[in-house]
Specification:
- It is a single chain.
- With about 230 residues, the chain is of the alpha/beta class.
- It is about 35% helix and about 25% strand.
- The longest helix has 20 residues.
- The mean pLDDT is about 95.
- The structure holds S-adenosylmethionine.
- S-adenosylmethionine binds next to strand 3.
Length: about 230
Amino acid sequence: MTSSKISEKDKALGRNYDRAAWFYEKSAKIYSTNQIRKTKQYQMQHIEPGDTVLYLGAGAGEDAVMAARHGAKVTCIDISQGMLEQVQKKLDEENLSAELVCVNAYDHDRIGHYDVVAANYFLNVFRRDDMAKMMAHTATFVRDGGKYLIADVSTAQGNPLAKAFNIFYLKLAMGSFWLMGLVPWHENYDYPAFFSDAGLNWEHTEYFRFAKKGPILFQSIVARRC
Ligand SMILES: C[S@@+](CC[C@H](N)C(=O)[O-])C[C@H]1O[C@@H](n2cnc3c(N)ncnc32)[C@H](O)[C@@H]1O
């Protein structure tokens, strides 16, 4: 069931994402040699059946559906109605349910409500200052001791060649998103560097490589609300 609390101002941005809704996950799968999905699958070991889980900027929701299948009580928020329609379609196919809310994450206000909040490929759509504000705001949705999970692109790691590949490959994706008006041009973020300001403690980072064996491109981070 989808409800909408979207302001007129946010509708325009939502429409840009609506246009990408049908191909977003398909292209992410090809582009990432399926590693984007793996970063989200990794999170399932950090979610217990019965947990309340919030997906921020849920997109087409492959991860939200994994969590619902796993027995979690899932809420998805997104600025794009088109993205949420994709989530609903997937839920219907498996006779699963979740709460879907079309809203700007800045306007969501369930402080301390969730066992787990997942920000997957979401914080990466903001400029640095906005990203830090968004992280700090959305971290307040996690109950004390609950988890804040981030699956996203990784900063460059390894030898100079691996680092150069990481930068080239990830900028290629950012460039196409930028051309579609979906993201501003920005650096890839070292998320744990922002955790103390957001009231989070870093616990673990799992890295994911291009085609499993190549340079590190993606990461799945586990943090806890302190
Ligand atoms: C790059 S996509 C990631 C989608 C999904 N989390 C995934 O991992 O595939 C970013 C998503 O965030 C949504 N979004 C962007 N700004 C938002 C905001 N301020 N509040 C809520 N959702 C937002 C977009 O509509 C889009 O679905």
